[in-house]
Amino acid sequence: MEALTIADVPAWGLRAFAFVFGALWGSFWNVAIYRWPREMSVVSPPSHCPACGTPIPAWRNLPIVAYLMQGGRAACCGARMSPRYVAVEVLGGVLCVAVVERFVLSALNSELALLAPDERLLMPRLLEALLYFVFLGGLVVATFVDLEWMIIPDEVSLPGAALGLATISLRPHGIDAVDAALGAGLGYLVVQLLFVYAYEAFTGRRGMGEGDAKLLLFIGAFVGWKGVLFALVAGSMQGLVIAILAMATKAELIPEKARDELAHDPGPFASEAETEARCEDEAGEVAALATDDAEPETPEEDEEEGRSPLRMPFGPFLALGAAEFLFFGDALIEAYLGLFPAP
Question: Which residues, including other chains, have CB under 8 Å from residue 341's CB and lie 6 or more apart?
Fold first, then answer.
């Protein structure tokens, strides 16, 4: 039996499968976003309504669909669900479609007959797209956790960096082993030595956190040293724009109450009553946690004193820059260099 090629499967079918697959994993990202900064397992407890404790059947855990059919409320007791939960699921679907377009369907834009036989095979390209989807998932989790807690969980950065370095041979349209090693090392050391240790020695506070250094370790393992530099430059520029707007409007980038009230964070479920809870998806199913019975542990605040007066998390901008490089890096760099004609 001959192996499937890209041309053997309709493009619309791949896109539809990618969106559903990505939305399912988007639900899992919601689990990680809530539980990892609280040092909780993403495996247990099982699914139940956070407001009333009613077990949630699997058929009510369909990503996006369940939210829409139930009008954004829990079916058992009517507790209101935050739009952020469904937004992450939609984002998962969109990102999965994007990597399929970038690493699988892009081959259809060229003459398949001109490609080498192994370049036409479907499964290797799907595996490559899956690995980059995992990379993007890590960036999404890091972004939402950093926005909420101003930390980046090691559960994202360290296993993610190991995965990136271990799967180089499975990503033939990406970087080579030397580039990955340089990217990971450069990403970590530049931030750790310059923006953490040296900056703190001269100013008395940290310019960036150690979580940012580990996140760049992860980014470098997947997109190499060029991707690290692009993420730093593009992230800094985009972050600067947001910081200027925040100062001009006197808006708080991270409200001071964020740390103090995280133990009472309503999460994706925001009941109109006093009950505060969060609904999560766990391995394709929604898992829920009630937070009114016990307060979760607050992450260590060893980096809190070293934050800038703006209390601005940099991780989301690094993640955005890395995603931009993955999809548009070559075109953006070429356009930038085109601004400076050769002598």
Answer: none
State the Rg of the chain over Cα: 21
Residue 71 has what pLDDT?
82
Nearest CA to 160 out of 84, 109, 220 is that of 220
Residue 164 φ then ψ, to 5°: -60, -45
Domain ranges of the chain: 1-150+254-299, 155-253+313-343
Place of tokens 């103090």: 260
| Residue pair 264/276 in contact by the 8 Å Cβ criterion | yes
- Beta-carbon contacts of residue 35 (< 8 Å; ≥ 6 apart): 41, 42, 280, 289
Ramachandran assignment for 284, one of left (phi > 0), alpha (psi -120 to 50 degrees), beta (any other)? left
> Is 116 in a helix, a strand, or coil?
coil
Which long-range contacts (C-beta less than 8 Å, at least 24 apart) are formed by 294-298? Answer: 295/263, 296/38, 296/40, 296/262, 296/263, 297/38, 297/39, 298/259, 298/262, 298/263
DSSP conformation class of 110: S
Task: Write the secondary structure of 209-232 as one string of H (helix), E (strand) and C (coil).
Answer: CHHHHHHHHHHHHHHHHHHHHHHH
pTM: 0.82
Predicted confidence (pLDDT) per residue in 109-128, tens digit? 765 656 777 778 899 999 99
Give the model's confidence band at 307: pLDDT under 50 very low, under 70 low, under 90 confident, else very high. very low
Q: Which two tokens stand for residue 113?
A: 């007959």
Residue holding tokens 């994993």? 25
Tell me the β-bridge partners of 277: 269, 290
Taking CA atoms, 231 is separated from 36, 83, 254, in Å, by 24, 28, 22
Mutual orientation of helices 210-249 and 154-166 as an angle, nearest 10°?
A: 120
The DSSP letter of residue 40 is: -
